[in-house]
Amino acid sequence: MFQRGPSFHIHRVIGKQSSVVVEHEPAVLPTFHQVGPFAQRTLHDGRHLGSRLNYTLLLVRFSYTIDGWQERWVLSKHRSDYGKFRIGSGRFYGDREKDIGLQTTQDIRYYAVSARFRPFNNENQTLVVQYTVKYDQQVDCGGAYIKLFSVDVNQDTLNEDSPYYIMFGPDICGKYKKIVQVILNYKDDYYFTKKNITCETDDFTHLYTLILRPDLTYEVKIDNYVVEAGHLEDDWDFLPPKKIIDNDLPKPDYWDERETIPDPMDKKPEDWDQPQRIPDPTVLKPDDWDEEMDGAWEPPLIPNPEYKGIWKPRIIKNPNYNGIWVQPEVDNPEYKPDPNIYKYYNISVIGLEILQEREWRRREGQDAAFKNINEQEPKGKETKKEKKKKATK
């Protein structure tokens, strides 16, 4: 069963140099109270945003209430056998009234549901995608990831082939696939991260966060701990490699890759060569042996105790060892840096397009936070305060 928590938040903080201005708020912003499709207030935890007054906040909140959730979330009609959603709190919860969310209800089903919000771009802004997941029971095979779509996506026919910008979240199938998917769209192609990021599989609530910055760095967090970080160019194959092998430069003739060599000063002893087998001196020719009839007498052979095997000189370190030859690299003429890798325009829909082989659940809310971070990043500015409501039996 799929369950999210009490609310779904999308918020964006814009610095004073931004060309998009929604509303000026004081540095210490009031706690968000208004529930509606759009509201210009603060992050729901009311954190301090800095000393300057010119921060701007756009907050979109989708509230999980028993009544009206289907007006905000569109169930795809692409297939007639899509799994059904419902609202509930799951088997375990911290607060039955508050910890409610969407739940899947059937095993071995595809699910497709989405919610639309006012379009925005993340140009020159840090994009933060954040939500929580809770599995109420053991997972055999099932995705628990979300997708961000452009304004053009058709929610009524949303399906696995619907083009998306970002796919992020845990994906479990079998014993060995327990990963966090981070798939990014670049020029209409999808690129998987080259890193193997392990997801959580227990029955506690876990906070998943993806951060994409204008400097092309990224972070993946689980429960506010960084589990992977780096540069978009390094960890996705968006662009041709910066360096390529120089095939025009062969290994020099003098290059010696032998780490050890036979000792040229070691000589074979003069008495080394002995036959491997010798006639058995203890066996005599029988008295009745007739060489005319039986042929020449040859005693049986036995292993020679003096035989030492094939002589080999001892092995020593090669004084001329140059190491393993590595073909040198040169600048790739096909490589062209692209500072726009991180950009997505007209982000407007968040969706769940998943397959579940066995029932699983999410709890506690799903939110995507979009913020413009200055060169000095205030601590705690990019993510919401982690909620650790451990459900008790």
Structural write-up:
With 393 residues, the chain is mostly beta strands. The protein has a domain at 6-18 and 55-242 and 339-360: Sandwich (Jelly Rolls). 3% of the residues lie in helices and 35% in strands. It has 3 helices and 24 strands. The protein has helices at residues 69-72, 232-235, 291-294; strands spanning 7-14, 24-25, 55-63, 73-75, 85-88, 101-104, 109-120, 126-134, 141-143, 146-150, 166-173, 177-186, 189-192, 205-212, 217-222, 225-231, 243-245, 260-262, 277-279, 301-303, 315-317, 329-331, 347-356, 366-371. It is elongated. The chain starts with 6 loop residues before the first strand and ends in a 22-residue tail after the last strand.
Spatially, the strands of the biggest sheet line up as: 2-3-1-24-8-14-15-16
Number of strands: 24
**Number of helices in the DSSP assignment:** 3
Low-confidence sequence ranges: 1-64, 359-393
User: What percent strand?
Assistant: 25-35%
What would the principal axes of the Cα set say about the shape? elongated
Q: Nearest-angstrom radius of gyration?
A: 35 Å
Biased composition (Basic and acidic residues): 255-271, 374-385
Pfam families: Calreticulin
InterPro entries: Calret/calnex, Calret/calnex_CS, Calreticulin/calnexin_P_dom_sf, ConA-like_dom_sf
Region (Disordered): 255-288, 367-393
Short description:
The chain has 393 residues and is mainly β.
What is the element layout, followed by pairings?
Elements (H helix, E strand, L loop, with lengths): L6 E8 L9 E2 L29 E9 L5 H4 E3 L9 E4 L12 E4 L4 E12 L5 E9 L6 E3 L2 E5 L15 E8 L3 E10 L2 E4 L12 E8 L4 E6 L2 E7 H4 L7 E3 L14 E3 L14 E3 L11 H4 L6 E3 L11 E3 L11 E3 L15 E10 L9 E6 L22
Parallel strand pairs: 1-24
Antiparallel strand pairs: 1-3, 2-3, 4-7, 5-6, 7-23, 8-14, 8-24, 9-11, 10-11, 10-23, 11-12, 12-13, 14-15, 15-16, 17-22, 18-21, 19-20
